[in-house]
Amino acid sequence: MTRWWHNNEDEGYDYGPEDEWEDEEELIDGVGFMDPGGNSALRAATPSNPRIHPCPTCEQPNRLTAIDVSRGYQCDRCADRLERGYD
Fold it and tell me: What is the C-alpha separation between 87 and 54, in angstroms, rounded?
């Protein structure tokens, strides 16, 4: 179980062990990120959350899980292109 906290006096807050949060808070319906610590917001594929949905932007098959679709996401390639101003 990973625990994180931040201490930054310049910004007027001091999070300590009493304010820690845990990885479990990143789970949605028991599913974590596809690439924990990476840039992707997509959820991991699991037997109950398979990657079977196409990207709504590029229409490539098997890019998103049901959780990704319910959150309005697109595939990482399309999201990266949009964020970098290529589209």
Answer: 19
What whole-number distance in Å separates Cα of residue 33 and Cα of residue 50? 13
Tokens 């970098």 correspond to 84
Name the burial class of residue 36, with classes exposed (0-12), middle (13-18) and buried (19+) by CB atoms within 10 angstroms of its CB: exposed
The C-alpha angle 46, 80, 77, rounded to 5 degrees, equals 55
Query: pTM for this structure?
Result: 0.65
Per-residue model confidence as pLDDT tens digits over 46-87: 999 999 999 999 999 999 999 999 999 999 999 999 999 886
DSSP letter (8 states) at residue 47:
T
Q: Where are the domains of the chain?
A: 27-83
